[in-house]
## 1
Amino acid sequence: MMTGFGIGFVYFGVQLNVENLNFNLYFAVAANAMMEISAVFIGGVLLSVAKRRLIFSQLAFIAGLSSILCILFSGGKQGILDKSGGSWPEFDLEAIEFMAASTAFNVLFVYTLELFPTNVRSFAVSVLRQAMVLGASIAPLLVAVGRYSPALAFLIFGALSIFSGLMILWLPETRNSPLYETLE
């Protein structure tokens, strides 16, 4: 649930946080949509060749690191490193962050389906979805804070994404494991 809350918070929050980028809002939203379409296919390929926990944790770390690096280019009208407005570097890092979070979001659903036995699988996926929605419902508050301090918003998105990637490492791997029928 904590992993679901974290990745739901980041996945939905990053989509809303494009308004705090030093970039054209309409182009940023369109680019995020293209990133999400690509993430579905990339996630499918990664799921067929790699371990689920490893995929999720690496994607969460990439999203978190990208978000934290966005701090270098945020800061109102001008970024710390790029005095011309910080548009392209910040935009590129945000796109990487969103693509990684979107792919991790999709991988987490597959992982949850494989993790729990049949008699509680539907309930487990429902609880995961509720945790993600809870994260999504709180994310707009951070986006509002990001209007005044973009660096703080990027830091919290990054830290929560990295935390989600760490939390999944305590769970068992499910790739090439049988789907269990009961808890026993």
## 2
Amino acid sequence: PWILSIGIYLAFVARMLLKDFRDIKGDKQFGKMTFLLRYGPKTTCLVSALLWLLAFSAAIYALHFAPGVLLPLLLGLLHVWLLLNVLWKTEDRDIQQRIISFIANAGNFSIVAIFISLLVQLQPGISSLEKELIPAVVGGSLLLFNFVNYILQRDQLLIRPQRV
């Protein structure tokens, strides 16, 4: 439980690093030297990506590399990394907020997969195959929905990385 708790905490910190994108103008105006203002968007996204990697690795280790949760966690990590790559290259504040919400959803859906995995392990009468399939299908479906939603909005709103 400690390793899983540490993983979830690291994911929370990775997500909190991104909150400063919301009010960069106000923070700069009032001299609030946030991590983002000190080190810039690229470094902030790289540190967040590293924390997400550590968080997901801790969760995968804590859950004994269970295949049912491994798939959604790896998909979630790849999804977060893709979005962080787009985020640091995008200067439009509204688009940044939308991307951050997709990152938050990917983290939330990954945690849902973890909780489902833990819950099905406690259920009597469920086969080993079902214990792996249920979190994989639910977590994978939620992450797929989030990714498709991002793609649709990206195409509608022209959310494309801008070269810096």
## 3
Amino acid sequence: MIFDIFFILLLVGAMFCVWHISVADFRRRIIPDAYLFPLMLIGLVITHFFPWICNTAESVAGAVLGYALAAIVGIIFERISKDKINTPIGMGDIKLLAVAGLWLGTTGLSIALIFACIFGIIWGRAKKQKFIPFAPFLFMGGFLSFITILFLL
């Protein structure tokens, strides 16, 4: 009973962090570490102590993969970009992908990235914007990835 209540409280805390990260990224194009690091710690606790879609080892591998993948993309865009101030991917997005990999593992992160990119492209085309907030779309993709892994795989 206490175990279940603690699990629910952790999920509520994670949703609180997700909401604030999404709003901050949507409004100001910044992902605050004040919500990102608690989301990471909650993900570590959940994947280690509770039954989840991935175990701790796959979770850490997903975090490393997410961070490395995003950092490589960021470095490539920074090298080819003429405007060094407004790079398409920032450190907040890189850390966010690491946290997504922590929560979803390698398979879940792959599925979440596909969903997030599709949603982001659709929204960007509809709004005709050069820069899009990636966090809300990654969270939507992560949720759909979680549902996909839970029920289909």
